Amino acid sequence: MFQSLWEDAKREFSYGNMVTRLIIVNVAVFVLMGLTSVILLLSVGTDGPSKFDELHRYFSISDDFLFNLTHPWVIFSHMFLLHDFLLILFNMLFVYWFGNIVSDFLGFQRILPLYLIGGLAGALAYFTSAQLGVLPIGGYALGASAAVMAIVVAAGVTAPNYFMNLLFIGAVKLKYIVAVIVLLDLFSVARIAPNTGGSIAHL
């Protein structure tokens, strides 16, 4: 079964579009980190979660400039780390839904640059906010949400009057959906939520 899944993933990555490839890479990293967490738990026992947290930090953007300078890969690796099932589920659904809309209007070649630039902009926003010390945003940041948000907003800007069918609601114009998503992050920053750093990066 696993061999078949592996072959399917390789085939989709080789012949699929950039939206498919981004989803495959993110899911692959999520699975790899999940397996690593299990291995650490089995090998070092109760110290496993703390070791896994250290591993996450090794690939995450830090509020410490020297750490980022000596670990330059974090500039890109942080935007492929998703540690929660619901996070990766909704982020990848957003990549699929909004990424395909952007691709329809601008072409699939725009997806990867949007994703990377969004992730880089999010990292810069997080790091700058951390240095200013205005909000309690934590010592490090990880996740694809800022990169995904770039694709979401690009879809809203490119095709504001495009209709999406929402469950229990029906057809809604894309500009309203994107506006609500952005406002939710804005409100999250305003009330200094636990994920304030992430919300700043999204914006």
Q: Can you tell me about this structure?
A:
The chain has helices spanning 2-15, 18-44, 48-58, 65-70, 74-77, 85-106, 111-132, 145-158, 174-190, 196-202, and strands at residues 61-62, 140-141, 163-166, 170-173. It is built from 10 helices and 4 strands; from the N terminus they run H-H-H-E-H-H-H-H-E-H-E-E-H-H. Helix 2 runs antiparallel to helix 3 (48-58). It has 203 residues and is mainly alpha-helical. The model has no long low-confidence stretch (mean pLDDT 83). The N and C termini lie far apart (41 Å). It is globular and about 50 Å long.
Side by side, the strands of the main sheet go: 1-2
Shape: globular
- Biggest sheet statistics: 2 strands, antiparallel
Instruction: Count the DSSP helices.
Output: 10
Secondary structure category: mainly alpha
Instruction: Please estimate the helix content.
Output: over 70%
Using brief descriptors, characterize the structure shown.
mainly alpha, two-stranded antiparallel ribbon, 4 strands, globular
